[in-house]
TrEMBL record:
It comes from the Bacteria. It holds the Pfam family Cupin_2. Residues 60-119 form the Cupin type-2 domain. It comes from Streptomyces hiroshimensis. The lineage of its organism: Bacteria, Bacillati, Actinomycetota, Actinomycetes, Kitasatosporales. This is Cupin type-2 domain-containing protein. CDD domains: cupin_QDO_N_C (cd02215). InterPro entries: Cupin_2, QDO-like, RmlC-like_jellyroll, RmlC_Cupin_sf.
Length: 185
């Protein structure tokens, strides 16, 4: 039996809207959204954790670099469970690095550090956790992308236009860097 809740974001969700309530979610049954060619599944967010952290997965095909961005108040974790993901990061002093993460590898991006990633193999999956005093950003995926009711990758990539990236509300703690250049290989 699966219980569904109504939240301020969705008419049907398997994640309870209020904090302090234990719950369980079967594999892939969280709140889903398509953004670019990826499927993002939220398992816990600000509503459940009093805006302390979120927990989500990103699954995608081998593809393009996700646009450079930073989170002014949020630390982000990348843990690869399937495939391979190349993580690009720049520290607050401007030093850039990249690393290929494969299953079991971990990447940490502190707040205010520009970063981007690219799925290097088909069927790659990243487990993400983000935490910080500025709240959580998981609802950004549905607001910039498109909510998804079913499992699986989008049939057509959901790619917002450049103007959409500029309109992302500050409440999501995501700042895009459209002119950012990566100087790594």
């Amino acid at each position: 039996m699966t219980i569904e809740y109504v939240t301020r974001y969705r008419r049907a969700s398997r994640i309870p809207a209020e904090p302090g309530r234990p719950y369980f979610i079967e594999k892939g049954e969280g709140d889903r959204a398509h953004l670019c060619g990826d499927l993002i599944t939220i398992y816990a967010g600000g509503e459940q954790t009093e805006n302390i952290f979120n927990f989500f997965t990103v699954e995608g095909p081998k593809g393009d670099l996700i646009p450079a961005h930073l989170h002014p108040d949020t630390h982000e974790v990348f843990y690869v469970t399937h495939g391979a993901v190349r993580l690009f990061v720049e520290d607050t002093e401007g030093s850039q690095q990249e690393n290929l993460l494969t299953p079991g590898d971990f990447g940490f991006v502190p707040k205010n550090c520009p970063h981007a990633y690219r799925m290097e193999r088909h069927h790659s999956q990243v487990v993400g956790v983000a935490a910080g005093p500025g709240g959580t950003f998981e609802r950004f995926f549905e607001n910039l992308g498109a909510p998804a009711d079913g499992l699986g990758l989008p049939h057509q990539p959901v790619v917002p236009g450049p103007e959409a990236f500029a309109t992302v509300p500050e409440q999501y703690d995501v700042r895009f860097l459209p002119d950012h250049q990566w100087h790594t290989r």
